[in-house]
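Q: I have 69 residues here and want to know how they pack in 3D. Can you give me a structure?
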Amino acid sequence: IPTTRYAITPVQLSFRGAGLPEVVAYLYEIENASLPFLIKRLKIKPTARAAGRLDVSLEILTFSVSSGG
């Protein structure tokens, strides 16, 4: 039985001083993406530079069918 192999592509993103509506909208878009993915790490904390703003770091793994296998 042949097996399907996947290529994994890590993507690291950082947002500094983002507003909560922008962060939620971006996470919603990721959640509804057509590619299979895994959010490996997500860190959200208030920024020290501006009240009501957030620093966000995330690492996403995307999966696609590999041509090598």
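Q: Anything worth noting?
A: Residues 20-31 form the longest helix (12 residues). Helices lie at 20-31.
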